Amino acid sequence: MITFVGAGPGAEDLITVRGQRLLQDADMVVYAGSLVNPGLLSLCREECQIYNSAVMTLEEVLEVMTAGYREGKKVVRLHTGDPCLYGAIREQMDALEDQGIPYEVCPGVSSFCGAAAALGAEYTLPGISQSVVITRMAGRTPVPEKESIASFAAHQATMVIFLSTGMLKELSRELIRGGYPADTPAAIVYKATWPEEKVLRCTVDTLEETARKEGVTKTALIIAGRILEGGYERSRLYDPSFTTEFRQAVHQEPPAGEEKRAGQKKD
């Protein structure tokens, strides 16, 4: 069996229990060396074969993994965060299917979750945003025209932008062109959950300036949206006047000022 494992956002203890066990049992690990915390490799047995895919092509990665499988080895393909986001795993899985080689996926904690934790933020605040757009700027790898930053910005939903730290001037321009006011709160989270994590709060129009002052040029997520302001409506889920499957409503008027809580997080 070949297993694709999500390594988590960075911190060694944010890999899943299942992922940890798979690394401990592996005979071979092919890891994304440009992003995965190398400290996770300490979980591997001394005799485990380890390959850094950052210096390999797709064909070389597949050659190593398939050879390991045919030798009866337990092979782990270790990707950063959760493999389903910008992990380029579909092409690997298709190649394995073509050869009749079984595989499975062990999910991981994505860096966009780590960034929210670093910010103390909730991406889906009642009355502010109930949707999260996860996207990236077009660079050397294109993005479909219908998925442009500007088109997503028109929805005014929370946006989490990957792989775009080197294009912040253009990103600001596209966010504003799409409909975000220039003063919309934004944040740059560098290496979320790593020891060297940085949280830089700014606005949509000051992204490039903020990153330049702090020397951040890569390995960062950009978050934009009014969820970073602090105001929101109280959740109906815990409202005493709201009936759920587990409790009956108590009909009463909420205390003055209860409908809006600025600067406070809900339960």
Describe what this molecule looks like in 3D.
- By secondary structure, this protein is α/β, with parallel strands linked by helices.
- It has 2 domains: about 1-110, 3-Layer(aba) Sandwich (Cobalt-precorrin-4 Transmethylase, domain 1); about 110-230, Tetrapyrrole methylase, C-terminal domain (Methyltransferase, Cobalt-precorrin-4 Transmethylase, Domain 2, 2-Layer Sandwich), CATH 3.30.950.10.
- The chain has 7 helices and 10 strands.
- It has a 5-stranded parallel β-sheet with strand order 3-2-4-1-5, with helices on both faces.
- α6 packs antiparallel against α7 (about 205-215).
- The model is unreliable at about 260-265 (pLDDT under 50).
How would you describe this structure in keywords?
267 residues; alpha/beta; Cobalt-precorrin-4 Transmethylase, domain 1; Methyltransferase, Cobalt-precorrin-4 Transmethylase, Domain 2; 2 domains; 5-stranded parallel β-sheet; 5-stranded mixed β-sheet; 7 helices; 24% helix; disordered C terminus
